[in-house]
Amino acid sequence: MNATSPEAAQDPGRVVLLTTSHRVAPGLLSWPAWQALRSADRVLCADGAHPQVPYLREAGVTVDRAAPTAEELLDACAGGRTVVVVATGEGEPALTDGLARLAGSGRVRMPELELLPASYDLPGARLLDLVQVMDRIRAECPWSSQQTHKGLAKYGIEEAYELVEAIEEGDRDGLREELGDVLLQVVFHARIAEEDPEAPFSVDDVAGTIVTKLIHRHPHVFGDATATTPEEVKEHWLRTKAVEKQRASVTEGVPLGQPALALAAKLASRARTAALDVPLPDGEGIGYALLALAAEAEAQGVDPEAALRAAARAYRDAILAAERD
């Protein structure tokens, strides 16, 4: 048997802290992670229920359930050994703090330390968390479990208005929060839809539908068409949308329940886009005057709803100033 050289005996070894994402299917690890696991002298994991452990063992990697202290980990690495620690979902704060304390003391020779991300979250990965949270709330919350599409409809409108308000006020923190509230409405409705006995669909179906629509309506991005200006993009969108919908009238798909100024502007936009020369109805009263103003605003590229809200905010500020005087 070969004797261990003094140099090898003094080698403090190597510690690899392996982190994984619970949002990625277990076993789908990076190649450097598999190399580290297979070449390690020991693989440790404090969580016996860690989702990666069964797959590592199936691949022939021996995983010991252990939660070593920093001192114990240094002993395990002594003599040039490599120890891989499969981190739990919360990370290993006690272990890393202990290693930092030992390194800062200057009294021990530290092993080589490496943080190795074994799997990564792709953009949008936190949406998986939202779906899981919504599943649990729907199952366990007395209020949420009783909600219906119809009962939630008013909240969708309210959240959309609050989002618009955050945008118009330039409130970045509010914008982030209100986008989340709008997203919650989408996920909530999709979760309710899964329970429909006749025509169920899931949030994946919702996402799949909009992905298909976006790809189809952007042939200049995903196909052979070309578009170099916003106007050409809009032409592509309207042309493909018309083919998809096969509408008998340009007024189809315009929700009559939306705010009146927005409704008037939308109808004027549809008529103008279709090159229909339709005179405004000749009537008396404020309603017809507002209709004319909404049509004029749309023709000038002005959102009448936004314009009126801006004026209303100025009026509110004037009221507040009068109240302070």
UniProtKB/TrEMBL annotation:
Residues 147-222 form the NTP pyrophosphohydrolase MazG-like domain. GO terms for biological process: dATP catabolic process; dGTP catabolic process; dTTP catabolic process; dUTP catabolic process; response to stress; TTP catabolic process; UTP catabolic process. One of its GO terms (molecular function) is nucleoside triphosphate diphosphatase activity. It comes from the Bacteria. Signal peptide: none annotated. InterPro entries: 4pyrrol_Methylase_sf (IPR035996), MazG-like_dom (IPR004518), NTP-PPase_MazG-like_N (IPR048015), NTP_PyrPHydrolase_MazG (IPR011551). This is Nucleoside triphosphate pyrophosphohydrolase.
